Amino acid sequence: MDHIFGPVNSRRLGRSLGIDLLSEKVCNLNCIYCEIGATTHLTCERAEYVPTAEIIGEIDRYFQDTERLREIDVVTVTASGEPTLHSGLGRILAHLKEKTGKPLAVLTNGTTLMDAQVRRELSPADVVIPSLDSAREQSFRKLDRPALCLDLGEIINGLVRFSHEYSGKLWLEILFSRGINDTDDDIHALQMVIDRMRVDR
């Protein structure tokens, strides 16, 4: 299996089966802390980086053994990079929902949520877990090292808008790095953004 991994035990989600939508590190950030390593394709372009039919076919083959459904609590869509850059995201989420009947979680860096199409495609998910490491330009650029096509203000506005449109659970994730985004000004700026959002945790 090239795009399915696990299931693994997740502290937050329970027994989770992972779906990786990308075959290389395609991302619009190059975060200094990323566990996958440096971004090999830094871009803001949404594209079918892996054929959608290939991913759906692998899902169908995996669940030919229906006993596998008993082994998982949730299906988590992620990527070796940013999953919402895959233009087939909506089709894949809809297929997973129909095929498994299990709760769907999506891990995202939250940078594409200014795009109404991305927000619509995420609607089948039961839980979306976006990141926001900084609401200050200097810290954001130092920690997350974004592609030049990204604008922090647009990212924040997209997150806020999505939080009010989305009917599922929204769990905001923040990673603090000592000396980069942990000053009083950084924390105050983040709190101001969070105050504008609807978040469940």
Topology of this protein?
Elements: E1 4-10, E2 14-20, E3 26-27, E4 41-42, H1 52-62, E5 74-78, H2 89-100, E6 104-108, H3 116-121, E7 127-130, H4 137-144, H5 152-165, E8 169-170, H6 184-196
Parallel strand pairs: 2-5, 3-4, 5-6, 6-7, 7-8
Antiparallel strand pairs: 1-2
Helix pairs in contact: 1-2
CATH architecture: Alpha-Beta Barrel
Count of beta strands: 8
Secondary structure: helix percent: 25-40%
Element-level helix/strand string: EEEEHEHEHEHHEH
Q: What name goes with the CATH superfamily?
A: Aldolase class I
Report on this structure.
There is one protein chain. This protein is 32% helix and 17% strand. By secondary structure, it is of the alpha/beta class. It contains six helices and eight strands. The strands form two sheets. It has a six-stranded mixed beta sheet, with helices on one face. A two-stranded parallel ribbon has the order 3-4. The chain has one domain: Aldolase class I (TIM Barrel, Alpha-Beta Barrel).
